[in-house]
Amino acid sequence: MAAINAQQIRKIYSIGNALGIVERGNEDDDLHALVSALTGKDSVKSLTYAEAQAVITDLQKRQGAAPLPRHKPKTHPERPGGATDGQQRKVWALMYQLAKEDRQDGGHPHRQAKGRRDGGAFQNQQ
User: Fold this and answer.
1) Helix/strand/coil for 117
2) Which long-range contacts (CB under 8 A, 24 or more apart) does 79-82 make?
3) From the CB of residue 32, how many other CB atoms can be counted at a distance below 10 Å?
4) CA angle 49, 55, 67 (to 5 degrees)
5) What is the pLDDT of residue 50?
6) Pairing of strands 121-124, 115-118
7) Lowest mean pLDDT segment, chosen from 19-28, 32-41, 64-73, 87-96
8) Spatial CA neighbour of 47 closest among 7, 106, 86, 82
9) How far apart are alpha carbons 16 and 103 in whole angstroms?
């Protein structure tokens, strides 16, 4: 089992301070009572990584803050004369939308549109 790391300890105490449940120098404060109730351990430093995550999640729920996303939004580098980041995101969104519609049509768009697919557009074949 992985041990708690320094960042998790800081986060637990930081959220505890924001909630007003930490008393400096007092190991019988409300934060330690919460840790004991959740994990059965009396010390924050004795928690495992998973137990610390459980405590942090509980504190965040009490605080009303949503956990931060685990990844940064994807950015697309811009090149001179190329599409901007916003344009690239729009192209990707449209490609995903086309793929979704293809799956809904059973993968055969020509059956629905009575034409053939040519680069994302339908060419009428009536």
Assistant:
1) strand
2) none
3) 19
4) 95
5) 94
6) antiparallel
7) 64-73
8) 7
9) 48
83-122 burial, b at 16+ Cβ within 10 Å, e below that, comes to eeeeebeeeeeeeeeeeeeeeeeeeebeeeeeeeeeeeee
Residue type (1 letter), 54:
A
pLDDT for 56: 93
* pTM beyond 0.70: no
pLDDT in tens, 49-82: 999 999 999 998 888 755 555 666 666 677 788 8
The residue that leads in pLDDT, 88 or 94, is 94
How far CA 60 is from CA of 9, 47, 68, in Å, comes to 14, 17, 10
Q: Which helix (H) or strand (E) holds 115?
A: strand 115-118
HSE toward the beta carbon, residue 98, CA cutoff 13 A = 13
d(CA 14, CA 65): 13
Condensed to tens digits (0 to 9), the pLDDT of residues 23-35 reads: 887 778 889 999 9
CA distance 97 to 81: 26
Supply 56's token pair: 């942090």
